[in-house]
Amino acid sequence: MIAKGTKLYSIIHYKCPRCHNGDLFLSAAYSKNFMKMPDRCSHCGLSYQPEPSFYTGAMYVSYALQVALFTTVYVALRVLFNPSMVAYIITTIVAAVLLLPVTLRLSRTIYINFFYRYRPEFDHADKIEQP
Ligand SMILES: [Zn+2]
C-alpha cells in the first residue's frame, strides 16, 4: 500500500498534490469527459489551473509515458511470443489507443506534482477557504 503523503499516492489515486484529498478529475478514466478537471481542489482550494495553458508541459510527460508503454509492449511481446514486426506495431498502436485516457490523466497528475508538494496542514484542515 502506498502511504498518503507521497507523490506516488497523489499520482496513483489522481488526488490533489497538496492535500491528497480532493479529486483531480471530475469523472472516471473511460467516461465521456475523462479530462475535465475542477477549477480548484474541493478540500484545500488549490487552483488546478495555476496559469493559462499550464498543462502544455504535460505533453512531455505524456511522451515519456508513451515511450515507456512502447518499450514495455515490445519487450513483453518479444519475450513471450517473438511476433513479426507488423504484429508488434499493431499491438503497440492498439495498446496506446486503449490506454490513452489513463496516459493523459497520468501525465497531468505527474506534471502538477512537479510544482506542488504534500502539506499535512492542508490535509487535516476542513475546507480551507481561499479566494
Ligand atoms: Zn487539495
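The mean pLDDT is 92.
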